[in-house]
Amino acid sequence: MNNENIKDMEEEIAKNSTFINFLSKYVEDSNYVYWLYMTVYYPLIVTFLLPCVFVLLIYFSSMTLYIFKFHRWVLMKEIRADDVNFWKVANKFIAAVWDAHATIYHGYEIHGLEHLPRNGPALLIYYHGAIPIDMYYFVAKIYLKLDRLTYTVGDRFLFKLPGWKIIAQALKVSPGTVKSCTETLNRGNLLAISPGGVYEAQFGNNYYELLWQNRLGFAKVAIESKAPIIPMFTENLREGFRNIGIARKFFITLYNWTRIPVRPIYGGFPVKFRTHLGPPIYYEEGITPKELQEKTAMAIEKLIVENQRIPGSIVGGLLDRFFNQKQIDVVLNKTRQRRFINNKDT
């Protein structure tokens, strides 16, 4: 490489990166500095920017729903704002957008769909990833495939975000109480709840441990409504989006104080997503909320150890896009399953 090319590289480094320019003062090899700049600096920025695509897609959905709401007189004549058909048209369009993203970007699939009732109520209990993007994909595909809208319970902080209110209104997302969730199921709807919620989203990792903090609300809902529970887990969910691994104790303290998810997220990797639905857990007379919680946790744990590499691997998740056979450490997963059953530690 001639001196002019080296000079051009150094000028570009100085222009675009203060950090790399600082490093070049201590590393004499200009070729190495330039390689570091191209292979570390840019990928690092992209890794933290990709989650923004998910946020933009949410706001695109919100904008589309506002267009349908405020300009319905152009799009659909003589349909009232509270008419079910109005929201159905808007929801179908939004579902098509999310399903297209799911298929193209993550090769999204649902396994065990035969366990989901075509009619009548069911309570879906799922593992919460760093971003619940699998739930958006699942709701979209089920709505398009079965023409059933899945009601979901969302954390209260979501309803303080601008643009979220209309999404919640159209897609039936609510903070949810035991009473309101029971009523939703009694009307024959599908309802999805993540017992781990935001805490599991923020502080879970690629070992896919359940962080339910002894929450029993969903079990009380299932007992009062007598609706079957469908365990749900999405493979490679933590490989698509992850939380940064540093300062975990600090972020736990901050979350307990604010109840707002403040731990940074990175990722957006196009890994293979497969949602697995387990056999229904039917109502049993005399079962307690604690017993039902443990039974449900073990069912989800079974889905995890049968379908997920532990620990999860981003590279492995990417290879799953091309190969059906994935290597799972059977001994490790069976040991974890036995430990989980013996301890019943949820």
Explain the overall architecture:
The chain is built from 16 helices and 9 strands. With 346 residues, the protein is α/β, with parallel strands linked by helices. It has 2 domains: 3-46, no CATH class; 50-343, Glycerol-3-phosphate (1)-acyltransferase, CATH 3.40.1130. Helix 6 (84-106) packs across helix 7 (133-146) and helix 14 packs antiparallel against helix 16. The longest helix is centred in the N-terminal third of the chain and has 23 residues, at 84-106. The radius of gyration is 23 Å and the shape is globular. The N and C termini lie far apart (59 Å). The model is unreliable at 25-29 (pLDDT under 50).
Summarize the structure.
The chain is of the alpha/beta class and 346 residues long. Helices cover 55% and strands 10% of the residues.
From the 3D structure, determine the CATH topology of the largest domain: Glycerol-3-phosphate (1)-acyltransferase
Order of helices and strands: HHHHHHEEHEHEHEHHEHEHEEHHH
Number of helices: 16
Strand neighbour order, sheet with most strands: 1-9-6-2-5-3-4
Number-wise, the strands total 9
Mean pLDDT: 82
Specify the overall morphology.
globular
Termini gap: 59 Å
Report the structural category: alpha/beta
CATH class of the largest domain: Alpha Beta
Name the beta content range.
Answer: 5-15%
Largest sheet: 7 strands, mixed
Percent range of helical residues: 40-55%
**Domain tally:** 2
Q: Whole-number radius of gyration?
A: 23 Å
CATH architecture of the largest domain: 3-Layer(aba) Sandwich
Low confidence ranges: 25-29
